[in-house]
Amino acid sequence: MKFFAAITTLVFAASAALAAPSTTTTVTVSYDQTYDNPSGSVNTVSCSGVLAGYGDFGNLPGFPNIGGAAAVAGYDDPNCGTCWQLTYNNTSVNVLAIDHAGAGFNIALSAMNTLTSGEAVSVGRVNAQAQQVDASLCGVN
């Protein structure tokens, strides 16, 4: 009976943890026009192994809202293909993590223009709120 109670408690605790919203953190966000190229090869990014079937950036779900994330530590990291909602001045964009970024996020210029209301080039880098969200919000099934 104690074993059953322990398993039940563990299951409920795990369910609660999974249901809890992910935390929001302040991160730096910059852009790299490499990610804007629909013909860019997925072989050039850290997540190339898991993305091999897509061939080019333009075939990725949610393109051009793609880029590098510090959460991707290296080649085919488990965080490859995760979706992140970035929010700046009450404007949000969902970005698919396909590469490593040294800090925060380094995303396509077009995605950063969405985030900054067309001001990406003039601001260069912003501090935004980041929260991991369900991958379906980035078009991943």
Automatic annotation (TrEMBL):
Keyword Transferase applies: no
Pfam families in the cross-refs: Cerato-platanin
Signal peptide range: 1-19
Classification via CDD domains: DPBB_CEPL-like
Keyword Signal found: yes
Main location: secreted
Compartment(s) of residence: Secreted
InterPro entries xref list: Cerato-platanin (IPR010829), RlpA-like_sf (IPR036908)
Keyword vocabulary terms for this entry: Secreted, Signal
Single GO cellular component term: extracellular region
UniProt-listed SUPFAM superfamilies: Barwin-like endoglucanases (SSF50685)
Family: Belongs to the cerato-platanin family.
Protein name: Cerato-platanin
